[in-house]
Task: structure prediction
Amino acid sequence: MIPQEELSNNIPTLYVDGTIVNISTVSKTETNKDSKGNKTTNTSYRRIISVTVNLKDSYNGTLINSQTFSIYDSDLYWMASGEKAINNALERLTSKVANFYNQMFPLRASIVEKGEVKKNKQKGVYIDLGAPDGVYKGQQFDVFLVKTIAGKEAKTIIGRLKIEEVEGDEISLCKVTKGADMIKTALDENHVLLITSR
Result:
């Protein structure tokens, strides 16, 4: 247990434990003939995985969330080996788990510097998240234009970013994948933008 006084701003630190519920293999064998009548037999594989992930408060061990994630036969490609099949299943599982917790605990960022501009469109930007924040190449973020209307905060989605490179502890280069013209206009006019993980 981590002493509460060591936690920054008394915000609970969370940790994850989990259980593998199921790992199984599905295979299929196909026999084909070439133009000379020679037969070849190929076996392809899919791995099915289910895990339960438990999110807990590290101070007192209280269960915050428990979720079971499953990758089914229909989610996967047929692979030439069992090893490739498990790698394919783990990639899908990792993506499913990351998407769930990114929605539960979205990361928030700011654009700290403009990147490349082409034909009056913003092609790249730098955001203030890095390796310690757990961001990774390929991670996507929505870009919101923030305005105050009648004293209330209003957000309008204007684009999307994808991390191209995590370049340090507090900086990542992102490619603008949607809304390049609107993001450029907002940056040029010094509008408030909010960047949130998807």
